[in-house]
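Chain A, query sequence.
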Amino acid sequence: MIHTIKVLCMNITILGVTRKLILLWLSKGPVHVHLNSFSIGKLNKSLLDIKQYITSDFVRKTRPIDEINRWKATELRLFLIYIGPIVLKNVVKYEVYINFMSFNVAMMILLSPDHSHIVQFVDKLLHYFVESFEKLYVTEHVSFNVHGLLHLIVDYRKFGPLDNSSAFVFENFTKELKTKVRKHDEQVINRYSELQNNVNSEQHNLEQQFPKLEHAHQNGPVETNLTGTQYKCLKLEKFKVNVDNEKDCYILSKSGEVVKCMNIINTTHHGIIILGKVFN
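Chain A, predicted structure.
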């Protein structure tokens, strides 16, 4: 018996609704939500200006909104979750911005762990988004994907954060698999087995590699009571800290403080320590 049909988060939220919103602003939607040439130029400038501050964790960086038809899912996700709230402010109309932000906040929560206690709030946000979407963009643009957002709450309750069952990893793997296959189905099976063995081996090696320290130096700053080797770069499994690179030198502490990393020290007695400046 089938108990659950999983909503494809990437297809609905990213390739579906996020792309649709941008297309509606550019030309597909009602006239009152369209961006004029000046606003598009302003948005493009912001997207290109912010590019230099996007951390190395993001393989694909921002590009002009005019190229939306060539944006990949990872670029759309970057826009929805991280970049959109910044570059859209004072560019789109206020009610359009508020509608987008309700979608943004809901997705931020649904992609985060341990937020079950505010699921009802997210449910209200998504209902608000769909209802205000219909008013802004008229009923004919309320597609299956837009309505499908209302079912994401069920998935969060059953499977946890939406990334737990995301298709992004399969999208990346499909591209890699296609490059290694030429003709027959048998090749697909063989290539998959080979890749799987390599992945398992690489994963084991990666677990042994991290944390990884690079670019030793002696330039400080150093606390007088610390002894050890100084490094400029600390690589972890999912991100890196580089004190020489403005876009990679900021971290968020567990207590919620923004810290600019100034030096990384592999100390003799206390392990790896990051020296930084706290922004209050």
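The beta strands are 212-217, 228-235, 240-242, 250-252, 258-267, 271-279. Residues 168-202 form one domain.
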